[in-house]
Design brief:
By secondary structure, this protein is mainly beta. It contains 5 helices and 11 strands, in the order βββααββααββββββα. It has one domain. Helix content is 12%, strand content 36%. The strands form 2 sheets. Strands 2-4-5-9-10-11 form a 6-stranded mixed sheet. Strands 1, 3, 6, 7 and 8 form a 5-stranded antiparallel sheet that branches. The longest helix has 6 residues. Keywords: Signal.
Length: 202
């Protein structure tokens, strides 16, 4: 039976060292939530595997030993894996079997994929995150209303997602998909798509 799931991360790897070991509790949506119609099968297909905290820092230019640092915010990156084959939508990157080997390793069956349809019940929904001992101030992040900026509080696919509380005009947290863009100079990670935030506001 599908029930609310709480994940507890006891040790958090910090990109910018914070000299602290923290506790993060993640509560996933359950069958009695307003968003249950999107998540009924979510735990069968998707699982959160990684959680990382990044500290955004601004340095004042000057001599290295005299530079001052200003903490300008914290960003959370969430890693999600697919437990089994699922269809989310059109593949928007160039798939290379020689690199990914999803077909060779039996994870992806092209014949079955032809017959699959997108199922809106396969999302997972992070309702709430409690962050203790990781940042200078503890935080309780509430994303229980999955219809806020719909569907940006639902996770529908494997991959990396960034939760950004700091630099968004509404002051409300939501998630953006991260992906690797190999065609830019030396390649780099992109967050969301071009003008994504402007599209949401409009």
């Amino acid at each position: 039976m599908f029930v609310n799931t709480i994940l507890v991360v006891f040790f958090i790897s910090i990109i910018q060292p914070l000299n602290a070991k923290g506790l993060i509790e993640i509560e996933l949506g359950g069958p009695n939530d307003k968003c249950a119609k999107y998540t009924r099968l979510g735990n069968d297909y998707l699982a959160i595997t990684h959680f990382r905290v990044l500290e955004s820092v601004d340095y004042v230019k000057g001599e290295v030993d005299k530079s001052t640092r200003t903490d300008s915010g914290y960003f959370f990156i969430i890693g999600v894996t697919a437990k089994k084959q699922m269809l989310y939508g059109p593949i928007d990157y160039r798939y290379n079997e020689n690199i990914w080997k999803l077909i060779q390793n039996g994870f992806l069956d092209p014949e079955k994929l032809k017959k699959q349809k997108f199922n809106h019940e396969q999302h997972i929904h992070i309702k709430r995150m409690t962050v203790n001992g990781v940042m200078p101030e503890d935080d309780d992040i509430d994303m229980s209303d999955c219809h806020f900026l719909f569907p940006n509080r639902l996770i529908a696919d494997q991959g990396l997602y960034m939760l950004d509380e700091v630099q968004r005009g509404t002051g409300q947290p939501f998630m953006m998909k991260m992906y690797y863009e190999p065609y830019l100079t030396e390649g780099r990670m992109e967050i969301g798509r071009t003008n994504h935030w402007q599209d949401i506001q409009n």
